[in-house]
Each structure stands twice: as C-alpha cells, then as structure tokens.
Give the backbone structure.
Amino acid sequence: MLFLTLMLFFLTVVLFVLGISMQPEAASIKNRLANWAAATATGNISAIEQELQLPFGERLIRPMLRSLAQIVIKLTPHGAADATQARLNSAGNPGRIGVREFFGLRVISAGLWTAFGLFMFKVLLESSVLQAVACLMLTLIVGMTLPDYVLQQIINSRQYRVRKSLPDILDLLIVSVEAGLGFDGAMAKVVEKVHGPFAEELGRVLEEMRLGKSRMEALRAMSVRINVIEVSTFVAAIYQADQLGVSIAKVLHVQSDTMRVARSQRIREIAAKLPVKMLFPLVFFIFPAIFVVVIGAGVIVITQTFVMQ
C-alpha cells in the first residue's frame, strides 16, 4: 500500500508539471493575440505586466526546468543536445518542450525516483540488504531512463501514424494533382482536409517555403524530422521527378502502390508473429487451467484410492 501511494504521488507530481508546462500551441497563440489586442487597445503596457500575463507554466515551470537543465548540460558530452533536439523533432515537439526543458524533466525524474529509492532502501534494509540495494539501483535506473522511454514511445507512435496515413495522403495528392493543382497546391489541400502528423509536417513545409526555403530543402528537412524510411523514399522520388522533368502524378501513383504493398507486407509480418506471441500466455495461463480441468478429477480419484488403501 505504501509503495502504491508513493507511486501515485510521483505520477501526480509529474503529470502536474507536464500539464502546466505543456500548453497547446493554438491556445498559446490565441492568448498572445488576445494580450496584443488588449495592449494595442489600452496603450503600451510595462514589461512586468507582460510577464504577469503569461501562463503559470511559462512564468515558473519552464524557467525552473531550464535552470535544472544547466546541471545536466555541463555533464553531457558534446553533441548530446543536438541528438536530443532531433528526437524531440521526431516526436513532434510535444508541448513545445525544448532541449533545456527536457533535460530539466530528466533532473526532476532522477531526483524524485532517487528519493523514493532511498526511502525504500531504508525500509527494506531491516529485512534484507540485497533487496534494499536492488530496489535502490532499480529506482535509479528508472529515474534516469523514464523521460527517454516516454519520448521514444511518443516517437514510435507518431511514426506509426505517419506510416499508416501515408498511402491515403498520397491518394489525395494524386487526385489533387490530376484535378489540375500544382504539387504545392496539392500539399495545401492535404493540410486543409487531413488531420495527423504527416499533414502537420506538410503544413510546416509550406510555411518554410513561404519563408524563403526551396521546396526540396523543406521536404528534406521534413524527412529528417520524421525519420521514416517511407517518407525518405517519397521525398527522393519527388526530387528525382523534379530534376528529370517526370510527371508528378505518375511518380505519386508509383509511390502510392509501393506504400500500400509495404503496408500490406507489414501487416502480414505482424500477423505471422502472433502465434509466437500467443505461446507464452498459452503456456503460463491457459494450459494450467486446461490441465486442471482435464486431469484434475483423475488425480483426485487416484489420490483417494491410494489413501483408502
């Protein structure tokens, strides 16, 4: 009961910090526009009033996370910040968390789990030293790896959604291009009609193109952010079609058929793995119950027979 209580307390603290610090981007933009409209209507406001109008997470939580991140940044090797930023980009920058905020979450997670491990070490030390040391080491490992594990799960989920929606989005691109739109217009139509991570990335591509990037540079940056082999293949095909003057519609047709075949093969692969995965619950949970039902009565009769003799 004590363990469950401490675990619930830890999860409550983590969710509270994340909930306050992760404000949706649309709500943040809406708040900034409202503040700007109020400032223009009433005249200039001071820097202190502007600071006080920020959400609680922006005023307290994010600066605290950045301060804690300074400890980790000094100890991390060169290039770790760039690798972490790449992983955050692959995850879609959840909650608009930067590298410093993520390092701050690492420090908080490690500190809370270390405190919990020290408490359990003190409790278990009276019964068994080995169990106390094992519990302390386990909590240390969990505290240091939990933020990276959660981030990796977000990345895997986002990449899965991209792979799943890619053939359908390619079909919409084909229909838009064959209807007379250019490739940029077709991407804008996808952004308008489809919701999902890949459509969001296409919207970011269009925004970067409006800011002066070329289309291929923006598409290459998108493929690096998503880090999915199907998207990289799609971008390479668009680049070749652009360089060689091939029809975009034909390239999109080929890519759509290839993506659907790849998705079908991936589904078959997952289905082929199911019998192996089902073996463990069959052996450990279903077979014992079947044995009890099938030979349980016979074992009881045999036991009673030997006892009577």
Notes: The chain is about 85% helix and 0% strand.
